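ESCALATION

Customer reports they have been waiting on this structure for their group meeting. Please prioritize. Original submission:
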Amino acid sequence: MSTLGRILMVEDDPKDVELTLTALEEYNLANEVVVTRDGEEALDYLNCRGKFASRADGNPAVLLLDLKLPKVDGLEVLRRIKSDEKLKTIPVVVLTSSHEEKDMVASYRMGVNAYVVKPVEFHEFVNAVRELGVFWAVINQPPPGSIKRT
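Update from on-call: job pushed to the front of the queue and completed.
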């Protein structure tokens, strides 16, 4: 029985997935990460649909969300999460390469908890992700009843 919350990562770039998992491995968080490759797949996971219909109940401890995604973009995923009573308390961290102010403003207006621009330098990226994972999956206390621990 783990005391850590699951992390849902929505990222279509395999290199960024690999870097993120490497960063989280240092704190033994990588085995708690579910990776979805596009916005539609993320929404299926969150709503227990499609290939995720039989997954364990409960929301992830945190959602690491890229904005530039195939099928359903990150801002639309965020909008749907924050308008759903069952999902809106999930902390969402936008982890993106977008430096566009409009993306940042839109993300915060929709209720994102943090907005992190992916550093280009490998070690900076690893450190940023590791700190995010430790905070959201280990330190942060979620609202009561929002997360079912596995």
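Sent to customer with the following note: The chain has a mean pLDDT of 83.
Escalation resolved.
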